[in-house]
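Colleagues,

For the teaching module next term, I've prepared a clean inverse folding example: a structure given as tokens, and then the sequence designed for it. I'd like students to try predicting residues themselves before seeing the answer, so please don't circulate the second half yet.
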């Protein structure tokens, strides 16, 4: 079911169900297709045999990262030459040389303009062999930045929940489906939220109440963040002010609050008999988009950061799960139409709106990537929910892992380099 509004409506229900057989990574692609930037990715060369395999590995991951970005079409020179086939052209050429140094790998890379051969950027990375996949992700993000002018998402990760038997636990996975890690064991976990690339919140029934917990991934510690009676659902985090939007039901009715990083209530934003939930910050922190059934059915509303100037954004009879894009230009939300949940994109003023897909699948729980281009959503294939990565511009879809309630991370810091 959908992240926040539906969580509030069914939050006291049991989550028991049988877990079907599953494959952790299932990378299939469906494309609408748009023009992409052709880029030549040459095989990383090696000066010694011990590092040759790592060079091949990083090259392979890099090509996949560039392909997944939605911006690039990785191509190669014709065999045994430094030229392209007659009908092809490119914007840039990637080159690299890797070698072993004092128990570490040293990688020098260059991105060259295809026509002028001028250097666009050059970097040197020093790292252990266990970090080679991450290094490939960093390089992909560098290429994205220098050729597109936007920060890439190859270093990002996703939190999500997965049902296993009678429990629903919290997991972590890289954006490309690798590095799967289980964070909880035997809990009923929902509503994950990143604070930063190392800290997160989630709600669990571990103590028979929907309490909100904080996990510090770097320190390997878990602690209670909010354990007020009733709902404690994290909605969104505003880094500039260190403020977290929460849905709490302190007096039995769910309302939206602002809490600080210590879990202390800063301000109560909504006050009515309706269910108010699913808050998401505008990137500038001046407005909040949220869900309320104050007119009799769940609808999308926008209010200012003090809870005033409320205006309705959505149309139709049932709308939920709004998330403001990091760029501030779009709000994604879910609308029920003809028995299916449609993923919609709307401008914050409500003047423009579109269905992202008009197929026979339901899309729920949207979460934006930091580039405001990609979304993660929950899609059911048969009875199994999957996390699906969606390119909102090209329409490309990629099934990632079995699970639901995805939350996309901020980008991580780079590895050491010269």
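(Answer key — instructors only)
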């Amino acid at each position: 079911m959908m992240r926040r509004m539906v969580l509030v409506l069914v939050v006291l229900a049991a989550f028991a169900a049988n877990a079907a057989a599953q494959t952790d990574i299932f990378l299939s692609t469906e494309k609408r297709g748009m023009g992409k930037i052709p880029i030549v990715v040459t095989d990383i060369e090696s000066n010694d045999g011990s590092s040759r395999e790592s060079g091949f590995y990083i090259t392979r991951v890099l090509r996949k990262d560039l392909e997944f970005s939605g911006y690039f079409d990785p191509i190669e020179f014709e065999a045994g030459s430094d030229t392209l086939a007659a009908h092809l052209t490119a914007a840039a050429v990637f080159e690299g040389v890797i070698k072993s140094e004092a128990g570490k790998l040293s990688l020098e890379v260059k991105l060259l303009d295809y026509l002028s051969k001028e250097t666009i950027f050059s970097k040197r990375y020093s790292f252990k062999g266990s970090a080679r996949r991450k290094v490939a992700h960093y390089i992909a993000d560098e290429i994205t930045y220098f050729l597109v002018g936007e920060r890439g998402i190859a270093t990002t990760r996703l939190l999500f929940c997965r049902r296993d038997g009678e429990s629903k636990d919290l997991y972590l996975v890289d954006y490309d489906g690798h590095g799967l890690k289980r964070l909880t064991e035997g809990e009923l976990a929902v509503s994950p939220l990143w604070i930063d690339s190392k800290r997160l919140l989630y709600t669990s029934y571990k103590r028979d109440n929907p309490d909100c917990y904080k996990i510090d991934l770097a320190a390997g510690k878990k602690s209670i963040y909010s354990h007020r009676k009733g709902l404690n659902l994290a909605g969104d985090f505003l880094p500039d002010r260190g403020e977290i939007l929460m849905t709490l039901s302190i007096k039995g009715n769910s309302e939206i609050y602002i809490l600080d990083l210590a879990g202390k209530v800063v301000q109560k934003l909504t006050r009515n008999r309706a269910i108010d939930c699913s808050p998401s910050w505008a990137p500038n922190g001046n407005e909040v988009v949220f869900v309320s059934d104050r007119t009799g059915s769940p609808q999308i509303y926008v209010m200012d950061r003090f809870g005033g100037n409320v205006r309705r954004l959505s149309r139709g009879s049932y709308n939920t799960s709004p998330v403001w894009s990091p760029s501030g230009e779009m709000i994604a939300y879910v609308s029920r139409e003809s028995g299916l949940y449609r993923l919609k994109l709307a401008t914050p003023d409500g003047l423009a709106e579109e269905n992202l897909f008009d197929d026979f699948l339901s899309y729920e729980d949207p979460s934006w990537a930091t580039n405001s281009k990609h979304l993660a959503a929950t899609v059911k294939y048969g009875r199994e929910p999957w996390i699906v990565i969606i390119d909102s511009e090209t329409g490309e879809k990629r099934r990632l892992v079995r699970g639901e309630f995805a939350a996309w991370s901020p980008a991580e810091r780079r590895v050491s380099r010269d």
